[in-house]
Design goal:
Arc Repressor Mutant, subunit A, mainly alpha, 3 strands, 111 residues, three-stranded antiparallel sheet, single chain, 5 helices
Length: 111
């Protein structure tokens, strides 16, 4: 997810009821909403499609709306970050310390 997607998601989440936020594609609603968010219509449309590709939102022929993952995207990102920290930092440290302890014990018994 890029910076613009986060900007759009955060602004939608600051609305009164983000679970019920819908952007209907009738008349010039897309243009008005793009201006409200500070993007061109093409850029805003690309952001909406990126959010759909990342499964934060759904787009049907009539409207755009957030999925459960989009409404609670901070928690999903936190979970993803915690998994990364665990698998990339904590587990390697544990393995390294364990190997060092085992090597030390073996060396003490041999000499």
């Amino acid at each position: 997810m890029d910076k613009n997607c986060k900007i759009v998601l955060n602004k939608i989440l600051k609305t009164e009821n983000p679970e019920e936020y819908k952007l209907y594609f009738f008349d010039d609603n897309l243009k008005k909403e793009a201006e409200k968010f500070g993007f061109s219509v093409d850029e805003f449309s690309n952001i909406l499609h990126q959010l759909e590709d990342d499964r934060f939102a759904k787009i049907n022929p009539r409207c755009f709306y957030l999925t459960q993952k989009g409404v609670h995207y901070h928690e999903f990102l936190r979970t993803k970050t915690m998994k990364w920290i665990l698998s990339s930092i904590i587990v390697p440290i544990f393995v390294s310390v364990s190997c060092s302890v085992i090597t030390y014990i073996i060396m003490e018994k041999c000499f």
